[in-house]
Amino acid sequence: MGRKQRSGRLLLLAGILAAGAALFALRLSFPAPEIYGNEKAEIDLSRLDRGMVEVRYTGGSEARIKVQITREEGEDYNYDLNNAGRWENFGLTEGDGEYTVRVLENVKESRYAPVLEHHLTLILEDPASPFRESSQYVCYSERSKAAVLAEELAAGMETEEETVDAVFEYIVGHVSYDMEKAETVKPGYLPDVDEVLAEGKGICFDYAALMTAMLRSRGIACRMAVGYAGRQYHAWVEVLSESGEWRLLDPTFVSANRGNEKVLDFVGEPENYQVRFYY
Questions:
Q1: Would the pTM of this model clear 0.85, i.e. be above it?
Q2: In contact, 105 and 113? CB cutoff 8 Å
């Protein structure tokens, strides 16, 4: 065999290996879906390493559909799910452990029947992973106006804490509490963070979702907490600080009570808040 032929074959082999490596890297970047389901519903676990599951209902019914996510010995997290077959994202926010994900179909009045159930084990390398992702309750994309604004506010900031403070101050200074909405909001309401930003008003759910979305879009771990502030059912924000501690922030109370020292003192005491759910 001539030297040129051997050289040509070596080049061909190198090209094949390089192409294979590129395809392998591509597959690593875009993991294949791990979908479990039946003719009624599907659960996608391809983002489980980030503490996320995607769910869709495919049964074709116009009935009301729900998703229930439960960690062993934990709270039941119940969500409405669209019945049009669109995927929706949900975080596994109670930490490592055994979870059950159920898709439920309304059969009569307030009665629901399971159409799909899947058990899974969650082990996260980074426990804060679900709190850096877009989800049903905290829904945004890189193109969201909320994300674009967060990028503008973060420009020139040297630390994550400075970015958190800038986003917090913007929201409490530009969003007002919507009393009419608070009195008329219907069960199943989901915040549209860009709409809240555009209208400049909202309820506690809106404040918390907007701030959480803006910070997550900057890669900052942030969770929306729902529970009780004193005796009031409420939503607020907790941000993972660079020291590894969760910092409580309440944009709703601060925005609606600027200058009220009693309220500001209340907000400054984390023991005044009792969380039930994290989103």
A1: yes
A2: yes
